[in-house]
Amino acid sequence: MKAKESFGSRLLMHWFGVKRPFDEYKHQQIGRIGTNAYMILAVYLLVSSIVAIFVGQKHPEEALIGLVMINIVMVGFVVNIYILIATTRAHIVTREIQAASRQEIIKKAVLKGIGFGIYFMVIMLIADILMDWYFDGTSPLNSVENMGVIWPNVRSGLFFGATMAIYEILTTKVYKE
Amino acid sequence: MRQDDTISTKLFRYFFHIRGVLDKAARQQMNAAISKAFLFMWLYILVFTGGVLLFVKNTPNSESWMLFVYLSLLIGVGGSGLYIRRRAADLGLDIRKVIANQYDDAVEDAVMGSVWVGFLGGVVLFAVWMNVSPADRPFPGIFAFLFLVVACVWEAREAINHIVVVESDVKRRK
């Protein structure tokens, strides 16, 4: 009988972009990659915090801006790129399909891309409106009506959706019988 | 620490206070726990960055945002490390089992390893403490130095306490 997976374990697999079924090999690889990523982040957090404390005593503003920028680069790019490369090399993000179901998979990937695009656009738009409201005092109603706020988010959504659809198609491989 | 361990395994042991046998199954269970800690830390850094950005709007030139940095050390590094160590303790990996004639060597290993870990941790805290402006620092530098010594002794004491003497296989068979 198949053991029931915990919510945390399933969340981890989805977060790393691992395709079902979640077998033993995939769990092992995610554990290995997650441990390496944790080591990178833990050392980074320790070093960056200590540096920020030292620099912040004399130059608080520069230290703050530096810390925020490096945090974004580290979390958004360095760790994510490492995970992307490591999971691709371990062949745990690829899905093998039969040649007959290729069209169906492409259709699903496009639909998924549209969904992700809309989701991303809405989230970014809400974040943009809230930030304008908090930092500049712009009324949320004014922001919603302003095309200058909406268009960049629509473009971001289109880019994100297209990237996700392409990624989904590229990680699907047709196996030879 | 075992002599035949690779550098990454030795780091792994020091980092998470693992003193027992780190076989494939134990390593996999630890990896699963560390991956969860990684996800927590990743989210924590995102929330931390957002929190700092929102906070700084009101006090852009103040040093008070440093409170977030201290919290970062405490929650991000300390919290996730504690979770992993608890997991290692649940799996019994923090205990080193040795036979009677290996006890002295195990104690020596434990003292050497722990003094290094305690010393490094103590130096970091010492440096941070001494760098805090004297007006905000309630205790003098001697307090920080004392902390360094206590950290070394505490680590060594913990490591020695986790050495268990077991009967050898030959003795057990008799």
TrEMBL record, chain A:
Keywords: Membrane, Transmembrane, Transmembrane helix. Pfam families: DUF3278 (PF11683). This is DUF3278 domain-containing protein. It comes from the Bacteria. InterPro entries: DUF3278. The keyword Transmembrane applies. The chain crosses the membrane at residues 36-57, 63-88, 109-130, 150-170.
UniProtKB/TrEMBL annotation, chain B:
The keyword Cytoplasm does not apply. The chain crosses the membrane at residues 37-55, 67-85, 106-132, 138-156. Coiled coil: none annotated. The keyword Transmembrane applies. Keywords: Membrane, Transmembrane, Transmembrane helix. InterPro entries: DUF3278. This is DUF3278 domain-containing protein. It comes from Lentilactobacillus buchneri subsp. silagei CD034.
